[in-house]
Write a structure and sequence with these properties.
Protein name: Calreticulin
Largest sheet: 8 strands, antiparallel
CATH topology of one domain: Jelly Rolls
Number of strands: 22
Structural class: alpha+beta
Distance between the termini: 60 Å
Low-confidence stretches: 394-409, 411-425
Main location: endoplasmic reticulum
CATH architecture of one domain: Sandwich
Mean pLDDT: 86
Organism: Paraglomus occultum
Radius of gyration: 35 Å
Keywords: Calcium, Chaperone, Disulfide bond, Endoplasmic reticulum, Lectin, Metal-binding, Repeat, Signal, Zinc
Helix content: 10-25%
Strand content: 25-35%
Bound molecules: 2-acetamido-2-deoxy-beta-D-glucopyranose
GO molecular function, one term: carbohydrate binding
Shape: elongated
Number of helices: 8
Length: 425
C-alpha cells in the first residue's frame, strides 16, 4: 500500500513537473502553413528569399525540412511571434535550434535574435532592437558562436571566444540563461561555455577598484633576483682585452714608415677572452612580488538584479549571406531544459547518423557524375583549368531557384527519388 502511494505521488509530481514546462515557440517547418507564421520584413525590396527545403542530402524528407536561404549575396530578414510574451526574470530561458550550412559556407550569419514586444516585423533590419542574439557566424577565418545581450541601450558581446563548426552537417545550438544570472551554451549537446553574466560580459561597472590613493611603500622589494654575493670571479677569468694584435702578422717589406706611418699589426679577437664577468643571479629572499594597489569597494558600483531578464515576444533571423543554402530548423524556446533535451533527442540525435549516411551517398553520386562527365567530354585540348571548372559546375553546392533544368538537376531529382522526396520544390 505504501509503495503504491509513493508511486502515485511520484506520478503526480511528474505530471506537475511536466505541466510546468512552458513552450513559447516550437517550429519544425514540417507543414505547409509555415508562411502564415513567419513574416518577411519589408524594410527593403531586395531581401533574399527563404524557402522550406530538407536539403540536397538529408536524414528524412519530412523531418529535415527547414527554413533555407536560397539566394547568394543577399540580406535576409524574417520573424515570427511567440505564443506569449516571455518574462524570464524568475525562470530559465532556453533557446535551441539547428543550423546546417550544406552549401559549404564562406561567409554568412547563422544566428537568431530574440526580440521585445515593441518589435515591428515589417521594419525588421540590422538596427532593430533585440534582447539576445545567439548562434554561429562565419566569415573567412572568423568562426564563432555569438552571444550578445542588450543592456542599457548597448549590445554587449560575450568576452569569451567560442568557435563553431564550418562543415556541411546539421548542428544543434542551445543557450540557457538562468534566473541566478548564469548562462550555458552547448553545441551538439556538449557544453562549450558557461559562467556568470556579470563576469563574462562588460555589463556593470566593476564591484571593486584599485585604491587610487594607495602608494607603493618605500621598502617594497620587487626585484625577484639579486646577484649572488657568494659568487666570485674565477682566478683565470679573462675579461679583456677583447682584441689583440695579430701575433702572426709581420710588417710588409715595402712598408715605408715615412710615407705610411708607423706599422701596427692588425687586431684579431682574443682567443682567451671570456667576456665581462658578472655574478650569477639567485632569487631574492626579500622579494614581495609586484606591487598592486589594494582593492576597495567601487563607489560607482550598482548591482543589477535584472541583468538576465527580458520581455521577449518574437524570434527572427536578420542575416547577410554570401553563399546561400543554410537551413535553420527545430527552433525551440522554452523555460524547461529537460524538455529541450527531449526535443533535441527526438529531432536531432535520432537523425544524426542517418544524415551522415545520406551525405556519403550524395558525395558518391556527385563523384560518379563527375567521372562519367570526365569520360564523355574528354578532349586532348582541355586544360586542367577547364577540367576544374567542369567539375565545379557538376557539383554546385546548392540548388538555385528558377534555374533551367540541366543534367545536374536531373542528378538531384534522381537522388531525391532515391531518398523518397518528389515534390518539395
Ligand atoms: C510527410 O508528412 C506528411 C504529414 O505528416 C505525410 O502525409 C507525408 O506522407 C510525409 N512524407 C514523407 C515523404 O514522409
Ligand atoms: C544557477 O542555477 C542553476 C539552475 O538552477 C544551477 O544549476 C546552478 O548551479 C546555479 N549556479 C549558481 C552559481 O548559483
Ligand atoms: C584541338 O586543337 C587542334 C589543334 O590545335 C584543333 O585543330 C582542334 O580543332 C581542337 N579541337 C577542339 C575540340 O577544340
Amino acid at each position: 500500500m505504501r509503495l503504491k502511494k509513493a508511486a502515485v505521488f511520484g506520478f503526480l509530481c511528474a505530471i506537475i513537473a511536466e505541466a510546468q514546462a512552458k513552450v513559447y515557440f516550437e517550429e519544425t517547418f514540417s507543414d505547409d502553413e509555415w508562411q502564415k507564421r513567419w513574416t518577411v520584413s519589408k524594410h527593403r525590396d531586395d531581401l533574399g528569399v527563404f524557402r522550406v527545403y530538407p536539403g540536397i542530402f538529408h536524414a528524412d524528407a519530412n523531418a529535415s525540412r527547414g527554413l533555407q536561404t536560397s539566394q547568394d549575396a543577399k540580406f535576409y530578414a524574417i520573424s515570427s511571434q511567440l505564443t506569449e510574451t516571455i518574462d524570464n526574470t524568475d525562470k530559465p530561458l532556453v533557446v535551441q535550434f539547428t543550423v546546417k550550412h550544406e552549401q559549404g559556407i564562406d561567409c554568412g550569419g547563422g544566428y537568431v535574435k530574440l526580440l521585445p514586444p515593441e518589435f515591428d516585423s515589417d521594419k525588421f533590419d540590422g538596427d532593430s532592437k533585440y534582447n539576445i542574439m545567439f548562434g554561429p557566424d562565419i566569415c573567412g577565418l572568423k568562426r564563432k558562436i555569438h552571444f550578445i545581450l542588450h543592456h542599457e541601450n548597448q549590445n554587449k558581446e560575450l568576452k569569451k571566444e567560442i568557435g563553431c563548426p564550418v562543415d556541411e552537417y546539421t548542428h544543434l545550438y542551445r543557450l540557457v540563461v538562468q534566473p541566478n544570472q548564469t548562462y550555458s551554451i552547448s553545441l551538439d549537446d556538449k557544453l562549450v561555455s558557461e559562467g556568470l553574466l556579470v563576469d563574462d560580459f562588460d555589463l556593470l561597472t566593476p564591484k571593486n577598484i584599485k585604491d587610487p590613493t594607495a602608494v607603493k611603500p618605500e621598502d617594497w622589494v620587487d626585484d625577484a633576483t639579486i646577484p649572488d654575493p657568494e659568487d666570485k670571479k674565477p682566478e683565470d677569468w679573462v675579461d679583456g682585452p677583447a682584441l689583440i694584435p695579430d701575433p702572426e702578422a709581420s710588417k710588409p717589406d715595402d712598408w715605408d714608415d715615412e710615407a705610411d706611418g708607423s706599422w701596427e699589426p692588425p687586431q684579431i679577437p682574443n682567443p682567451d677572452y671570456n667576456g665581462p664577468w658578472s655574478p650569477k643571479l639567485i632569487s631574492n629572499p626579500d622579494y614581495k612580488g609586484p606591487w598592486e594597489a589594494p582593492l576597495i569597494p567601487n563607489p560607482d558600483y550598482r548591482d543589477d538584479p535584472l541583468l538576465h531578464a527580458f520581455n521577449t515576444a518574437y524570434i527572427g533571423f536578420d542575416l547577410w549571406q554570401v553563399k546561400s543554402g543554410t537551413i535553420f530548423d527545430n527552433i525551440l524556446i522554452t523555460d524547461d531544459v529537460e524538455y529541450a533535451q527531449e526535443f533535441a533527442d527526438k529531432i536531432f540525435f535520432a537523425y544524426r547518423d542517418v544524415e551522415l549516411q545520406a551525405k556519403k551517398k550524395y558525395d558518391e553520386l556527385v563523384q560518379k557524375v563527375k567521372d562519367e562527365e570526365g569520360e564523355n567530354t574528354f578532349d586532348d585540348n582541355d586544360t586542367e583549368e577547364q577540367d576544374d571548372k567542369e567539375a565545379e559546375e557538376a557539383a554546385p553546392p546548392v540548388l538555385k531557384e528558377q534555374e533551367e533544368p540541366d543534367e545536374l538537376d536531373e542528378l538531384f531529382a534522381n537522388y531525391e527519388q532515391q531518398l523518397g522526396i518528389k515534390d518539395e520544390l
